[in-house]
Design brief:
By secondary structure, this protein is mostly beta strands. It has 3 helices and 22 strands. It is globular.
Length: 371
């Protein structure tokens, strides 16, 4: 474990104006990966020992933490994060908490996976953030209850040892643990507030589940698909195109800047593994005056490495879900969508099933990760 941007100490008191003007942050090398704790993937904060001032669920909100200097309630300042009460010692002679005292929250990852980095964000917690944090992880089957997660026989793996953090800062930690995890335990020592938790990594799906499904979306984020690269991420990330569900607003899809040359934009995807693709959906929901004009799909053969067109350049309509049944299955492990000339799409779905070779490789990887 290495802290990629180490902040300590209080931030200055809020002095008015933009509350993010003095926010301490850095370019973390892992934030291009999927957030395994994204609510859209089904993540949740299943329990916390204390949430007196601010609810634990705030930790996983997808948007940056909001600060309203005038917002107070019966318990005090209302913060957009998870905030616990101040811990006290055992007696007047011992008024301070002891070293072992800490608060905790249990997080269910939206998609089990390999954690490559975390951001413990203390935005707007300037003098009321924890002195230190630690993060542990575990992999358990099914949908364990908080009591089952906290059982004495459950063995947790430390991802971030107890480490001092700073207030009003994006505290980043690179993680080196080549294991598949399903749940995290976020600890703050001894108490305080954390605005957001981001858990960046790679989805590691359950091969038995995908095999049982038969035909499924082989590029979906929750099933292990990922974006390798994209020509443009100006307005929104390309990863949005493989998020669960349909888009609910314009910036929930992928939109590029306006081109002034003769080129076109594209996204390059890795499928969960080698698969036979049989049907395609290209959705332009909520993209009305800025949808792509045309789209083309090409696939890479895993054996030869050759790229072949399987959906010729096809006209797209604004705010429309386009469906295509392929005349024959297309075998691939990577796919590229080209849009012409620019604009955007909200979702791409590639429905198919794993090949025998793809299923074997996925099962071997699952076992290697301790799944």
């Amino acid at each position: 474990m290495t802290a990629t941007a180490h902040f300590t100490g209080d931030a200055n008191p809020y002095g008015g104006g933009d509350p993010y003007a003095d926010y301490r942050t850095a370019d973390h090398p892992f934030t291009h990966l999927v957030d395994l704790a994204d609510r859209r993937l089904g993540a949740g904060v299943v329990a916390a020992n204390d949430e007196f001032f601010a609810e634990r669920e705030n930790l996983l909100k997808p948007e940056p933490a909001h600060f309203d200097p005038e917002r107070f309630g019966h318990k005090g300042k209302i913060m957009d994060g998870w905030e616990t009460r101040r811990r006290r010692g055992a007696s007047a002679e011992r008024p301070h908490p002891v070293a072992e005292d800490h608060d905790w929250a249990l997080i269910r990852l939206g998609a089990p996976g390999i954690v490559r980095g975390l951001v413990v964000d203390t935005a707007h917690f300037r003098g009321n953030y924890p002195q230190a944090v630690s993060v542990e992880a575990v992999s358990l089957p099914g949908s364990p209850s908080p009591e089952e997660l906290l059982a004495p026989d459950v063995k947790w793996t430390t991802l971030v040892p107890r480490t001092a953090v700073g207030g009003h800062a994006a505290n980043g930690f690179a993680v080196d643990a080549e294991r598949r995890f399903t749940h995290l335990r976020l600890n703050q020592h001894p108490d305080g507030g954390i605005a957001r938790l981001r858990v960046y990594g790679e989805v590691a799906p359950d091969p038995a589940w995908l095999t049982a499904l038969g035909t499924f979306d082989v590029v979906a984020l929750e099933n292990g698909g990922r974006v390798e690269d994209a020509s443009d991420r100006f307005y929104s990330p390309a990863t949005n195109t493989i998020q669960p569900g349909r888009s609910h607003k314009m910036d929930d899809g992928w939109e590029t800047r306006r081109r002034r040359d003769r080129g076109n934009d594209w996204i390059h995807y890795h499928l969960v593994e080698e698969a036979d693709i049989r049907a395609v959906e290209i959705d332009t929901a909520y993209l009305k005056g800025n949808a792509a004009g045309w789209a083309q799909l090409t696939a890479r053969d895993a054996e030869t490495g050759e790229w072949t067109e399987f959906l010729p350049r096809t006209r797209l309509q604004p705010d429309t879900n386009h469906r295509f049944v392929l005349p024959e299955a297309v075998r691939a492990d990577q796919v590229r969508i080209d849009i012409f000339p620019d604009g955007g799409i909200s979702r791409l779905r590639l429905f198919g099933s794993l090949t025998e070779r793809g299923a074997a490789r996925l099962s071997a990887r699952h076992a290697e990760l301790g799944g």
